[in-house]
Design goal:
Cell_wall_LiaF; 6-stranded mixed β-sheet; 2 domains; alpha/beta; membrane; 12 strands; transmembrane helix; 37% helix
Length: 242
């Protein structure tokens, strides 16, 4: 129950912060949306031309502009103060009433069960690009998140199991490319704020704030299937055969 209360308290703080942000935009700082869109456009254009010096300059101008816009909002200051007070109160409570962990009958009566740690195909990475191995590797479902960088998942170097193979990627800035072997059925569920989507040569084109859900024709009947679930703030998704 205590863990639920902690979660509800944090959710309440974030909801209040969003409400403060809404009031701030509606009545006091209506130009914030325009400023954020301009910063996002700089970041997107710069990300596209990252290999050139001008592209890197545009990208970091956008990043700095976005950060400054966020830091200058009343909602962000409210969030920082609220979180500080929340964790301060939690610290005081724990000092007065330390939490004791004791084994319960529910756990002691359960038989011992061994666990095996599996090496992930890809890992969470704050900054920088990554891709699956160029040599043969053992498949395991992918569930990663990244702030900035390109991600490439090549399924031609692994053996997919029967049933569903899941690729779950959350990305802030950067492109995602998934290479799928022929005769493997695929479903794609993609959510983005801004970017392009290309699936097997069918290009969706650049758009804003869109959720796309598609699948190949024989997906439901196939024994080997790949489910791709991706979320990107600014970036492109490309799924192609290899």
């Amino acid at each position: 129950m205590q863990s639920v209360n902690k979660t509800e308290s944090l959710m309440f703080i974030f909801i209040c912060s969003l409400f403060v942000l809404f009031i701030e935009i509606m009545f006091f700082h209506s130009g914030l949306i325009f400023s954020v869109l301009i910063a996002g456009a700089f970041m997107y254009i710069g990300r596209k031309k990252m290999r050139r010096k001008l592209g890197r300059i545009l990208f970091w101008i956008g990043v700095i502009g976005l950060v400054l816009n966020i830091f200058n909002t009343v909602a962000f200051k409210f969030l920082v103060i609220a979180l500080f007070l929340y964790f301060l109160l939690r610290f005081i409570q724990l000092r007065k009433h330390p939490v004791e962990f004791r084994p319960t009958d529910e756990f002691t009566e359960q038989p011992n069960q061994s666990l095996v740690q599996v090496r992930p195909v890809l890992t969470n990475k704050l900054l920088g690009s990554q891709r699956t191995e160029d040599s043969v590797y053992e498949w395991d479902d992918i569930n990663i998140q990244s702030v900035w960088g390109d991600i490439v998942v090549d399924l031609s170097n692994t053996v997919l199991p029967k049933g569903d193979a899941v690729i779950f990627i959350r990305q802030v800035f950067g492109n995602i490319k998934v290479l799928i072997p022929y005769e493997t059925e695929v479903s794609v569920n993609h959510s983005k704020l801004a970017g392009n989507v290309t699936v097997f040569g069918h290009q969706r084109g650049f758009s804003f704030n869109e959720n796309l859900s598609i699948k190949t024709e024989e997906f439901d009947q196939s024994a080997h299937r790949v489910k791709i679930v991706t979320t990107v703030v600014i970036g492109d998704l490309e799924v192609q055969r290899i």
